[in-house]
Specification:
three-stranded antiparallel β-sheet; alpha+beta; 3 helices; signal; Lipoprotein; four-stranded antiparallel β-sheet; 193 residues; globular
């Protein structure tokens, strides 16, 4: 009988524990439409991003020959277009597509959470490893890339490396300020070609 009453008390308490635990916290608000650069002004850099975790890699294994014969000419063509046309919307889209097609950006997001799943801490942070920020994960939505275009587009090839600068904002809206993203960073990237 003691076992039965103990079991009953465990089951009676289980819903309370389950409602406060992390596996039920998949809620977030998604940004409708695209972020605009003016909406990102004044944000702290690496907002909800683990410092030092952001890096770029080739999307697919690429040979040195492919990089020099295929990617480098495309980069040079884009550099020429930048010189000739400036920051047109079509050119910015072309650069965004080139980066998304050939590279992947990885990072660790610091997801705020309220729930009793950590050592006596109701409010705490979970680390979410994102292997491709252009794709949504369970808790962190895809990031939108906003290429730096003022005073000019920051994209080119120098000293054997592709470089570009961009701001990245997740489609997750900040719970405390719905006009801002939950995850944001601006960074200069370099990768050997």
């Amino acid at each position: 009988m003691k076992k039965l009453s103990l079991l009953a008390s465990v089951f009676a308490f289980s819903p309370v524990v389950m409602t406060a635990s992390c596996f039920l916290d998949g809620t977030f608000v998604e940004k409708e439409g695209e972020w605009r650069l003016n909406e990102l002004e004044g944000l702290e850099n690496y907002k909800s991003i683990k410092p030092g975790s952001v890096h770029i890699e080739y999307k697919n294994q690429t040979s040195q020959e492919f990089r020099h014969k295929t990617l480098l000419p495309k980069i040079k063509d884009i550099e020429t277009e930048i010189e000739n046309t400036g920051a047109s919307k079509d050119l910015v889209n072309k650069i965004n597509n080139f980066i998304k097609r050939n590279f992947v950006i990885k990072l660790t997001a610091l997801r705020p959470h309220k729930g009793w799943d950590t050592k006596n801490s109701y409010s705490h942070i979970h680390e979410e490893q994102l292997n491709d920020i252009s794709k949504p994960s369970t808790k962190v939505l895809a990031f939108q890339m906003l290429l730096t275009t003022q005073p000019k587009i920051v994209f080119g090839y120098e000293n054997g490396k592709l470089y570009f600068e961009a701001s990245f904002a997740s489609k997750n809206v900040d719970q405390d300020n719905t006009s801002k993203p939950q995850y944001y960073f601006k960074q200069m990237f370099e990768i050997e070609i």
